[in-house]
Amino acid sequence: MEGGLPGIVRNDERLVVCTLNPDGTRDFLFDGFSQVPEMSLSSNLEDVRFSAYGVAVRSWDEQIGGAMFRDADDPALESDHSTSLEVRFNPGGRPNAIPAMAEPSRNSSGRPYPTFIDPLAANSADSGRFWTLASAVKYICYHHNSDEEFVLNPTETELDTLLDRWSARSEASIDPQNPESYSTNPVELADFIATGTAWPDALASILEPEGFGMAFRLETSSSSRPITRLEIFRRSGPPHPGVKDLLLQPRGAVLDPGRTNLAEAELARDVSEVANEFVVDLAPTRYEASFVLCPAFSIDPSDCDSIEALSAFALTHPDFPENRNKYRLFVFDETGDGHWDWESSTISTTSTSMESLYEGGERVSHLRRRRPPIAELFSRDADGRAMTAALSISTDYLGDQPGIWDGTGNWQRIGGGFDLLDDRLGIWINVPHPNGWNIQTGASSGIAFPSGVVGVVEELAKPGGRRFALRLTCVIEGDFAAEARAVRRGSSSTNFSITRRIDGRRRYRRHIITSASEFNDASEPLVARDDTAKALREAENERRERESGKVAGRVTIPRFTRAYRIGDRIRGVRGRGLSLRTNAGAPIDEGEVLPAVIGLRWAFDGERSTTLLLSDDRGADS
């Protein structure tokens, strides 16, 4: 709708509403853009209306695209490039932020922020680090809101001070005024993809699971201009910003405007969506171990007389389909598909057990399924980098074949000439001829194959040949996951356990280096990674948000006031002893969970009034 009438507000026009104080200063009530003009006509009325949104709405005009990446050859040097790669923090639980001591990137305002680095090159402390909540917030704010045209970012000091996890030092509760009562630790960010979202949405997605909220605050600058500032705060637990009361004198008291500001109220406690027990599902536990493989083909001495039939030419020749895997395919045979039994000299279809891997209280797996090897190990080399799957050969190993490595035998490392199978646990020899397998190891004395060449056919099939064993060290996936369960508490509003599950398989993992791994020198399994505590914290946060329902509604104050702001929490009605806390009975160090002001409405038509829209801010968009 367009018109030439004076005073008509058009779409996208910027509007500012303010009050003038007696001293001549201004307090701004609104700064934003008009939207959705409406018009209605009747026989006795011409009415034009419009809606308007604060200037922060411009933050949703553009979505996050590609990430800012740094060259991996020298991450300490500021060499950042704009790319089309995903903005993905800690992908699969791998660090991909530049090192802490590296020179940060800086935006046009001079604000420093970390950038991304190839996760495959960030395996050691001097090459990369995990994104924390604070560093990720800096990247999102300082890179994607770098010009601060409409919204001012928090400072680095504010983010570093606020975005830590608080833990009580003893059984006593946390006292925000006493730093000795608590310790702080960085919040390591879970796997999160920000590409395709507006930066405020990305920010809210990483803040809310950790118990933080955000609000856009309209303030007055030193030059008496309206400014909108992004504020990040803790949603529950210490410290409490802006906890306030409503005032209502006892019934029958003489009205005192200084002690009463509540004219009307409509509040309700909604328990329809209560859930008081949460389970976060982790990915199935993965295990690093060494597996002794066995031929997945029949061994016949006559094969030595037709060695050429096993050449690379024969692999694709239609007359020799049966030779495809002979003297090339070696498996653990976890599902009994068939392996060579040395005792009976026949093919056995008995599956090979993995139960001995599940040690140290691990739940035993009875599921017989194929488990393709995962090449990246949990063990690390001297430089702190993740090692890759290793294959070795031995002629004096006497343990079970196939089977879990029992720690015996003298082994020679194989440097190449094989592929890991993608459909089961094993390897396939990929050289032109299996009887001339170049295992790419240097010539040396004291090893079984000092020339670095293995005649697989002659060693296994020829009478008098040396029966050898292959040991594959890799990672496999188990069948069970550690459980992160936050059980129902007595502070819940219902006696029944109402359970909800959260899929955390992409973000939370547990990795074990078993005692059967050749790289584990200890006699016990080693825990390389365990995200159970992180997953439990998320479950506890979700429980705290959902176990008591929400208080929501509105209250009206019969005058104009700026005493209440968006994000302020309302503790209760002073003078009537009415508490609005929704987590009564919860541990003290969790703090009070109170309804928050999520909207303000001022009326200047007729009698002036201020209406506060309230909702339990655990479930509200702050």
Number of strands: 39
Backbone structural class = mainly beta
Largest sheet: 10 strands, mixed
Q: Estimate what percentage of residues fall within beta strands.
A: 25-35%
Shape descriptor reads: elongated
- Which residues form runs of ≥5 with pLDDT under 50? 617-622
Helix coverage percent: under 10%
What integer value in Å does the Rg equal? 33 Å
Short structural description:
The protein is mainly beta. It has 6 helices and 39 strands. It starts with 13 loop residues before the first strand and ends in a 6-residue tail after the last strand.
Overview of the molecule:
It contains 6 helices and 39 strands. Strands 17, 18, 23, 24, 25, 26, 27, 30, 33 and 34 form a 10-stranded mixed sheet that branches. It has a 4-stranded antiparallel sheet with strand order 15-35-39-38, with no helix packed on it. Strands 1-2-3 form a 3-stranded antiparallel sheet, with no helix packed on it. The longest helix has 15 residues. The radius of gyration is 33 Å and the shape is elongated.
What descriptors fit this protein?
mainly beta; 10-stranded mixed β-sheet; 4-stranded antiparallel β-sheet; 6 helices; 32% strand; disordered C terminus
Write the layout of secondary structure elements.
Elements: E1 14-20, E2 26-42, E3 45-54, E4 68-70, E5 80-82, E6 88-89, E7 105-106, E8 112-113, H1 133-144, H2 156-162, E9 164-168, E10 182-186, E11 192-193, H3 199-207, E12 212-220, E13 226-234, E14 243-247, E15 264-270, E16 277-281, E17 286-295, H4 312-316, E18 329-331, E19 339-341, E20 346-348, E21 376-380, E22 386-388, E23 390-394, E24 403-404, E25 412-414, E26 418-420, E27 426-429, E28 437-438, E29 453-454, H5 456-461, E30 469-477, E31 483-486, E32 499-503, E33 510-513, E34 526-530, H6 532-546, E35 550-557, E36 569-574, E37 578-579, E38 595-603, E39 609-616
